[in-house]
Design goal:
Structural class of chain A: alpha/beta
Radius of gyration of chain A: 20 Å
Order of helices and strands of chain A: HEHEHEHEHHEHEHHHEEEHHHHH
Strand content of chain B: 5-15%
Number of strands of chain B: 3
Number of domains of chain B: 1
Oligomer: heterodimer
Radius of gyration of chain B: 13 Å
Mean pLDDT of chain B: 90
CATH superfamily of chain B: Coenzyme PQQ synthesis protein D (PqqD)
Largest sheet of chain B: 3 strands, antiparallel
Number of strands of chain A: 9
Number of helices of chain A: 15
């Protein structure tokens, strides 16, 4: 339970959030079928203004936010990205640009660096140009990304390469690792996609086999040892093949805030998938007020609401019962134990679905678009 | 960042890489190191060491300053500092 008064700074700070995912827009030239944006994308006409974002970052800094991901959609679609970045920097927040890299010029990147951008995270869909472009649904994207990676290093900015993993690149992990080293990345993120939102709709076309995922884990172990002090690697397995659930968001309403393009404030970027949730908007209320009192944040804060097997579980304060969105998708009640946990009565169904669907090879992608229709086969 | 693992020795002149920011977190009254997807909270002594990692001082010079401040034998301190810095370097939080 969080209770705090304006004057009681200690209490506020002890429970203050640390990370802010700023979805500046849902517009994106890429159409990756596992996009983490909600299936109901928010349109450009409703997006927050420059002034809104500048004010939000001031509020975020005051609230205790330490890091922000300037994300989307594709954040560089916004012409005011420099002003927004500058506002975050001035609020003392560590800024990470999450980009597909196909729209940025070197001049613009330099401008972003000059206002204080701390870090660039570039998505690479595959090491093979043709497959990369097919996965992202954007022709010529791969070569533009390579160009951007080169500029990032020329401008002496730090680089993370992010390759979301799935069936169509799972056998290329070694190549992806070497590729990221060659690009000069300090960090590589090879998280298997999680099957929410767009990826849930595309699960049959994307989910790898358990054996493939476990082989990936071995490859990562070896590479981490070999690349110690050269490049760090973050690896995440799909929930379907996990034994313990992830401590999603480090606990609901405990460390992170997501703000959608239109200003909705969410405990997690997928939270809109839970039916019946209501979200406050930064246009109406101060971010601190929303953090402390919004019903969406209050709803699953802490662990008191969790039923068994969580209630009596020793890991309750470690993983907080896992992911609320996944619990909702599978059990119809977001308060239930995440079925990714082996102790959940739904876990065996989750695994069975994964094992069955991972054998399918003929499924078309539903590309991420503002209107949802199958487009092509991979 | 160089494409080789940094092995920290007495002559190393350590510094934080460009993408790691060390700053005081006023709200929580502690020092933090910020990097993408990572927040480190070094303890009080580590903070003092890191403040001296300016890319010019050697580990030996840092150890001797710390030995004076904390009135401890310089050999012990130097060994501890090397271990700590090597750990940070292997995680990608330190360069030279």
């Amino acid at each position: 339970m969080i209770e705090a008064q304006e004057q009681n700074a200690d209490v506020i700070c002890a429970t203050a959030p640390m990370g802010l995912l700023a979805e500046l827009t849902h517009r994106c030239p890429l159409q990756c079928p596992y996009c983490s944006n909600p299936v109901d994308l928010e349109r450009a006409s409703g997006e927050l203004s420059t002034e809104d974002w500048v004010r939000v970052f001031k509020e975020a800094g005051d609230l205790g936010i330490l890091q922000t991901h300037l994300s989307g959609g594709e954040p560089t679609v916004r012409k005011d990205l420099e002003q927004i970045t500058k506002a975050a920097v001035e609020a003392g927040i560590y800024t990470n640009l999450i980009t597909a890299g196909v729209l940025l010029s070197k001049e613009r990147l330099e401008g972003l660096r000059d206002v204080g951008l701390d870090h660039v995270q570039l998505s690479i869909q595959h090491v093979d140009a043709k497959l990369a472009d097919k996965i992202s649904g954007f022709k010529g994207g791969y070569s533009k990304k390579l160009e951007l990676a080169k500029w990032v290093k020329e401008l002496d900015l730090p680089l993370t390469v992010n390759s979301p993993m799935h069936r169509h690149n799972v056998e290329y992990l070694e190549e992806i690792i070497e590729f990221a080293v060659r690009l000069g990345a300090e960090r590589l993120e090879v998280a298997h996609i999680q099957y929410y939102g767009w990826a849930f709709d595309n699960r049959t076309a994307l989910i790898p086999t358990k054996e493939q995922v476990y082989r990936n884990a071995d490859i990562v172990d070896e590479a981490r040892e070999r690349l110690k002090g050269i490049m760090s690697i973050d690896f995440v397995v799909p929930d379907y093949y996990a034994v313990r659930p992830k401590p999603c968001m480090g606990g609901w309403g405990s460390q992170f805030i997501t703000i959608s393009p239109t200003g909705k404030v969410l405990p997690c970027h997928a939270a809109a998938s839970i039916k019946g949730m209501e979200f406050d908007n930064v246009k109406d209320k101060h971010l601190r007020d929303i953090w402390l009192h919004s019903s969406a944040f209050e709803k699953y804060r802490g662990t008191d609401y969790l039923p068994d097997p969580c209630k009596s579980c020793e890991f309750r304060e470690v993983d907080f019962g896992g992911c609320r969105c996944q619990a909702f998708m599978f059990t119809g009640d977001a308060a239930n134990t995440d079925p990714a946990c082996a102790k959940s009565p739904h876990h065996k169904d989750l695994l069975a679905i994964a094992e069955q669907e991972s054998q399918r090879e003929d499924k078309e992608f539903i590309y991420r678009k503002f209107t949802k229709t199958p487009v092509t086969t991979i | 960042m160089s494409r080789e693992r940094l092995i920290v020795v007495a002559e190393t002149t350590p510094k934080l890489p460009r993408f790691v920011k060390m700053r005081h977190d006023k709200g929580r009254d502690r020092w933090i190191m910020l990097a993408p997807e990572r927040i480190l909270t070094p303890d009080e002594i580590a903070v003092e060491v890191l403040k001296l990692c300016d890319g010019e001082r050697t580990v030996t010079a840092i150890a001797s300053e710390m030995a004076q401040t904390y009135k401890a034998p310089v050999e012990v301190i130097e060994k501890d500092i090397i271990t700590m810095l090597q750990g940070l370097s292997d995680k990608g939080f330190l360069t030279s």
